[in-house]
């Protein structure tokens, strides 16, 4: 009897969790290079936040020691800056 109750309790718990999870509307993520010649992290974060309400980061430009300011932000499905 105890095994049945444990199984039933687990089943009900799984159902409760499944019903409690609300559907998430996924947003498209876009990127834009704001400064292709260099990156100062503070300035990059500030410009990205002001321009797109996003997160600016310094990413590699492909050459050792060179970085570009890349802005990552939520955008609409028809935005041209996606990557």
Automatic annotation (TrEMBL):
One of its GO terms (biological process) is defense response to fungus. Keywords: Antimicrobial, Disulfide bond, Fungicide, Plant defense, Signal. The keyword Glycoprotein does not apply. InterPro entries: DEFL. Coiled coil: none annotated. Residues 1-26 form the signal peptide. Belongs to the DEFL family. This is Uncharacterized protein. The lineage of its organism: Eukaryota, Viridiplantae, Streptophyta, Embryophyta, Tracheophyta.
């Amino acid at each position: 009897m105890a095994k049945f109750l444990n199984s039933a309790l687990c089943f009900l718990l799984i159902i409760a969790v499944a019903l409690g999870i609300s559907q998430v509307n996924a947003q498209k993520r876009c990127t834009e290079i704001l400064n292709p010649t260099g990156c100062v992290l503070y300035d990059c974060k500030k410009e990205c936040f002001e321009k797109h309400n996003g997160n600016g980061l310094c990413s590699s430009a492909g050459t050792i020691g060179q970085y570009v300011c890349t802005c990552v932000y939520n955008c609409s499905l028809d935005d041209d800056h996606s990557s």
